Amino acid sequence: GAPRWAASLEGHSDWVNGVALCGEDVVVTCSSDATLAVWGGAARRHERLGTLYGHTDYVKAMAYAHPSRRLVSCSLDQSLLLWDLEAAQPVRAEGGGGGRRAARPVRLDGPESSYYAVSMDAAGALVASASTDGLVRIWDARSATFVCQLQGHEGHVRCVHLDGEGALCVSGSSDGTLRVWDVGQQRCLHICEPHGGSVWALAPLRSSENAGEILSAGRDGSLCCTSVSS
Questions:
Q1: What residues contact 230, with CB distance under 8 A and at least 6 apart?
Q2: Which of 120, 94, 98, 95 is nearest to 108 (CA)?
Q3: How many angstroms separate the CA atoms of 150 and 35, rounded?
Q4: What is the C-alpha to C-alpha distance for residues 226 and 212, in angstroms, rounded to an integer?
Q5: Which of 112, 162, 194, 212 could form a disulfide with 78 if both were Cys (CB 3.0 to 4.6 A apart)?
Q6: Cα distance from N-terminal residue to C-terminal residue, the chain
Q7: Residue 101 has what pLDDT?
Q8: Where are the extended beta strands (E) located within the chain?
Q9: What pLDDT score was predicted for residue 83?
Q10: CA dihedral defined by 112, 139, 40, 104, rounded to 10 degrees?
Q11: Per-residue b or e along 110-131, where b marks 16 or more CB atoms closer than 10 Å to that residue's CB
Q12: pLDDT one digit per residue (tens) for the chain, 230 residues
C-alpha cells in the first residue's frame, strides 16, 4: 500500500543533518545542536532512548557498520568520534524521556580538519572522511588511528563512500569532480565531472545488476549514475 505517517521524532534544537538505521529497531540522528539522538523503532514506539554527547559543533554526518555495532560521527569541530552502540545503554532522565548515555566515544587520532561526510566499510574496520581542506582521509576504526590521506581534489570534499570491502573509495567535491581511489595503493584511479559543478551527495546502487555504480547529486540539480569501474 501507500506509505503512511508513523511517528514524529522530535527533540533536536537545530537542523537534523543525518539519519542512520542501526539494526532493526534503532535509529540515530545527528544535528547542528552538536548532539546525536538515539530512537527506538516501531517496536519501541519510536521512543527517544538517549542522547550522545561529545561534539562541540555541528554534527554533519554519520556512518554505521552493523557487524561491529560501531557508529562514527563527524563534525565541524574537527573531530571524528566512534561510538559503540552495543555498550551505549540508555539512561532515563527524571520524569521520563532520554537522558545522557553511559557510553563515551573514542576519538580517531590523526590530522584535524572540519568534516562534511564520513563512510565505513561493511565490517566497520575502516573509516573514510571528507573534509573542508580538500583531503580524503582513511582511518583504522579498530585501533582508532590515522592510516593515510588521499590528495587530489581542489575544493572542499563534500561527500565520500567507502565500498563494502574497504578497497575502493569514491569522493565528490566542490571542485566539480568525482574521484575513485584505490585505498590500498593510495592513488586515484578515475576522475570524472558528471555535473559540471559541485558534487554534494553520493549513494551506491546496491542491486546486483548495478554493482559498481554510484549515484551522485550536484548543485546543478541533477542526479547522475556513474560506473566506478570505468
A1: 190
A2: 120
A3: 29
A4: 8
A5: 112
A6: 39
A7: 46
A8: 16-21, 26-31, 36-40, 48-52, 59-65, 70-75, 80-84, 106-107, 115-120, 126-131, 135-140, 145-151, 157-162, 168-173, 178-182, 187-192, 199-204, 213-218, 223-227
A9: 94
A10: -60
A11: beebbbbbbbbbebbbbbbbbb
A12: 788 888 899 999 999 999 999 988 899 999 999 999 999 888 788 899 889 999 999 999 999 998 888 999 999 999 999 998 876 645 444 444 444 445 689 999 888 899 999 999 999 999 999 999 999 999 999 999 999 999 999 999 999 999 999 999 999 999 999 999 999 999 999 999 999 899 999 999 876 555 689 999 999 999 999 988 77
What is the edge-to-edge ordering of all strands in the sheet holding 115-120? 115-120, 126-131, 135-140, 145-151
C-alpha cell at 8: 514524529
Residues found in the chain? 230
Q: Supply 170's cell numbers.
A: 569514491
Three cell numbers written together for 85: 552502540
Contact yes or no for 39/26 (Cβ under 8 A): yes
State how far Cα 80 lies from the chain centre: 10
Which residue type sits at 28?
A: V
Following DSSP, what letter does each residue of 14-50 receive, concatenated?
S-EEEEEE-SSSEEEEEETTS-EEEEE-GGGTT-EEE
The label of the residue with cell 554533519 reads 60
How is residue 214 written as a grid cell?
554510484
